[in-house]
Amino acid sequence: MKEELIVSGRMNHMVDPNLHIWHWQIPLYLFLGGMAAGILCIAALYFIRGREKDYRTAVRITPFLAPGLLVLGLIALFFDLRHKLFFWQLYTNIRLQSPMSWGAWALMVITPVSFIWCALHMRDLFPRWDWKYRWLKELEKFFNKYKKALAWVMLIYGIILGIYTGILLSAFNARPLWNTSILGPLFLASGLSAGAAATLLLSKNKEERKQFARIDLVIIGIELFLIVHMFMGFLASTQVQIDAANLFLGGPYTATFWIFVIFLGMLIPALLEIMELRKFYVPALVPAVLVIFGSFMLRFIIVYAGQMSRWLY
Amino acid sequence: MRYAMAVDTRKCVGCSDCVVACQTENEIPIGFCRDWIVEVTDGTYPQLEMEIRSERCNHCKNAPCVRCCPTGASHVVDGGIVLVTRNKCIGCGACIASCPYDARYPHPAGYVDKCTFCENRVKNGMSPACVAVCPTRCLYFGDLDDPNSNVSVVLKKRKYKTLIPEAGTQPQLYFMI
Ligand code: SF4
Ligand code: SF4
After folding, report:
1. I need a labelling partner for A291 at 20 to 30 A (CA). Which of A119, A262, B85, B138 fits?
2. Assigned CATH topology for domain A25-308
């Protein structure tokens, strides 16, 4: 059989023998950003559709998680940077062709919006809350007047942020595993399902919990559909993408991917949610935590496995 | 102007002089390199074929590393040379992940580093350090837009290939086979 032996004299730290430039920081950043995006999109959507009364937790309470998640995400991103002192360069440049730049700016818009959204709902969390200064009260009045516009900004930037977490990776054609446009919608869906799970976790209203179990189910269905499509696309593509798919189909990431992402992160919670809708007693905590965990693992595994996939020459 | 390099894989003996010359000229930290030697052996014993290549950044015409940089630190200068501005680079690593040739590395000081075609030497009419030092003279550097430059001349005479052109990067390192 014809064989090929390639010997390279290069041994650059973090680049050889295969790329490992991104560690836990980037997948954590993508997960936190994606989950916050999911929470804010759902809140904005139900508010715009005037369903705030029925889904009070989703619109008014769960968003309180978002600012924290976003700030933690930015901190994780900051930890990834190796030239930290120059961090501000992200915000003195707008580079339309760079997904990283889009993400940094989307975060810059949505983080303050999420803080404002929470401030408008302080009274829901603390019934006796009142703003101390007059100008804060004026500000609250002002934003309450334009709440609908605020919700639209939140919805649009939430979608941008959610898709961005996938596009950041899919824009790299150097890593065949990432180089599929399915990652955008897949990561958006995964963020939305983590966002829905957060409401499932926090809501005390039975009807609302049921609705969010249903939403989660639908999104898990969409995610599975997208994952099947991703593999079909890979297997019908060039050799490098077939190799990329094989990382999960017999390669080193097979067990982690199928057990943690598909089985524990999607199939088991879906089953539990079906049982709950069929009136069995299932503590909401279990499926919700599993979904959030699965969404986290998905990004982790894709980021790590992607760095193993490469062009050979 | 379009700078490019041609590598004669039939003359290269893989001595790594170009690697050391670059490390010296550009003060590369120990353990890292901007150019490197690849030896490919293929076939079935005893019918073996060997190719030795001196590789570095391809200074791609359609450079993904420049596109994905969020700060504009990675940029293209006159002659198509791809450079990194150190005090604009935040070290996010996006460009490293975007290069199909893995030609970049994170400098221990934090910024990202890569081959510059020795822009400082080239500007002053010299050739890059690797080209100047090669004992077999298998590296050719020059302007592709000028039909009389030594790269243009040698590429007219010889058969050549580029590395993974299917990655869409339009690499400007030509390997004569
Ligand atoms: S070889 Fe890599 S670093 Fe050099 S220009 Fe091309 S993509 Fe960028
Ligand atoms: S590491 Fe530096 S040069 Fe590379 S993409 Fe990030 S900011 Fe740009």
Report:
1. A119
2. Formate dehydrogenase/DMSO reductase fold (1.20.1630)
